[in-house]
Amino acid sequence: MKNIRNFCIIAHIDHGKSTLADRLLAATQTVTAREEKAQLLDNMDLERERGITIKSHAIQMEYEYKGEKYILNLIDTPGHVDFSYEVSRSIAACEGALLIVDAAQSIQAQTISNLYLALENDLEIIPVLNKVDLPSANPEEVSDDIIDLLGCDLEDIIHASGKTGFGVDKILEAIVEKVPAPKGDPNEPLQALIFDSHYNPFRGIEVIFRVINGEITKGQRIKFMATGKEYFADEVGTLKLNQVPKNKISSGDVGYLVSGIKEAKEVKVGDTITDAKNPTTNMITGFENVKPMVFAGIYPVDTEDFEDLRTSMEKLQLNDASLVFAAESSAALGFGFRCGFLGMLHLEIIQERLEREFDMTVITTVPNVSYLAYTKKEPETAFIVNNPSDLPEPSKLDRVEEPYIKATIITKADFVGQVMSLCIEKRGQITNQTYLTPERVELNFDMPLAEIVFDFYDRLKTVSKGYASFDYHPIGMRTSKLVRLDVLLNGQSVDALSALIHEDNAYTIGKKMCEKLKELIPRQQFDIPIQAAVGAKIISRETIKALRKDVTAKCYGGDISRKRKLLEKQKQGKKRMRQVGNVEIPQSAFMAVLKLN
Ligand code: GTP
Questions:
Q1: Is 475 exposed, middle or buried (0-12, 13-18, 19+ CB in 10 A)?
Q2: Which residue among 9, 12, 19, 138 has the greatest number of ligand 1 atoms within 8 angstroms of its CB, and so is best to mutate?
Q3: Could you tell me the CATH number of the domain that includes residue 356?
Q4: Which among 37, 64, 269, 564 has most CB atoms closer than 10 A?
Q5: Looking at the structure, do residues 156 and 28 belong to the same domain, yes or no?
Q6: Residues with Cβ < 8 Å from 350, sequence gap 6 or more?
Q7: What number is the ipTM of this complex?
Q8: What's the pLDDT at 312?
Q9: 356 pLDDT exceeds 80?
Q10: Residue pLDDT, tens place only, 176-222
Q11: Is the CB of 133 under 6 A from ligand 1?
Q12: 588 and 497 share a domain?
């Protein structure tokens, strides 16, 4: 155990975490040149395409230092706020962290939020100034920023480049020298922390864990403490580029486990694995059931595909336990599902996977957060509202609570004014403002989560000309004056277009919504009035003028194949449209409320 080091890499997005991880694997010959592919750890197609790490992974390296052999377990962490609970559990499985800071970008919002997580878990921090090869690198100034943040010495900061490989040997040495060896007792009852799991279509769920105390052996009867479920450890082993089966994994080490578990939801990240016969009395602290933060309706474009969609969702859920869904029906869209996601990125991933892996064409409705409603009749009983149409009548409603977040934004001093106005417009309350350097400011806001779901990121990017980084964490529910904005097309209320918004913004949003929908809904053979309403009150109105559009008119009779092609093209264009009453609504219209500015 004294020769094991468990560490993770924490960084702001794009500061070079994956590139550097690949370098460490190459330097320790964990991968041969032939196996080396760019961004090795990001092995889901989607991850590679988007250049982001969605799921965390672990990999074991062997490293010889001063004549002794060491096992280095690198625990990779996802880089997006939607997956922050997984980040926190990965961090809890380590004794040390490489804190990567881009030598041109310096410290950003995620650098700080991840660092706090690491410090809460008492990790030894090794600061790495990365991308020193960049012509725009500013090592002196960025080193000063790191020293201010960590209170470390200049000599502690390792200069490195994932691109050239510079500094990689120093990083490996520092991991051995500075990261403490794991503590723990192999003779105690088994206590292992689950920090990740994967779905393998042939073997079921593979659980990734770190043993704190005791050991886990092949064939052992084990128990997952949070779910209470028991299994046999059919196979245990360590994670190299491939899995390496072993007879046992002892305290301090990281490994995988296969037990024929079929569904991802049986394995909860943060749960403790123990021995079924001789269980530990202590569950590892910090376990939480991850709750979805954003909800949206997912409907098949073709109503007949509802059962296929259900099957696809069930299959997706087998390997992604954080996806939740329940059947719902919409007067406008028919049968579909109300789905819960960890955040907007997660929503996009699910939508894309449904299309790519299951060949489903779906309509996604306006995302919303989860509200708590209290009625006048029972003002003490919270009633969960995951769909705006479920909000009780205004006359029966006592109050509504919505989730709030604490936001951290780091930006240049020049943009503080604009960033603050944006946050205030988004109902944020400033709680703190710190000048990290004369040019860089950290701002803290309490803000409704719903405002982040709407167009916040894009607006922040625009007002700061790209010089703002942003991170957040939830801080609980607060009462807000919320009303439901309904949209009527051709006099018919379209439930899938309803959204809960703050009373004070109702008029402006209603007006913009009508204007936007006028742009997005194609003209049809009759006038279509668009109205926005709060309760019985119409607050805005636009009209889409009738147009008779005969696409085949151009083909003056003759060429039938050309005519067919045009009709085919028109059919393709219809793919993501839904007929509601006698109005055809494109997918973009369901997202209109997110793009009002
Ligand atoms: P996420 O996984 O999305 O959090 O990103 P990451 O932090 O893993 O960053 P990644 O390794 O994907 O690198 C981001 C970009 O920076 C890529 O375009 C890399 O090619 C580039 N990059 C990484 N390291 C270096 C470096 O040392 N020097 C230079 N010049 N570019 C680098």
A1: middle
A2: 19
A3: 3.30.70.870
A4: 269
A5: yes
A6: 298, 316, 320, 323, 339, 341
A7: 0.97
A8: 93
A9: yes
A10: 999 999 999 999 999 999 998 888 878 888 999 999 999 999 999 99
A11: yes
A12: yes
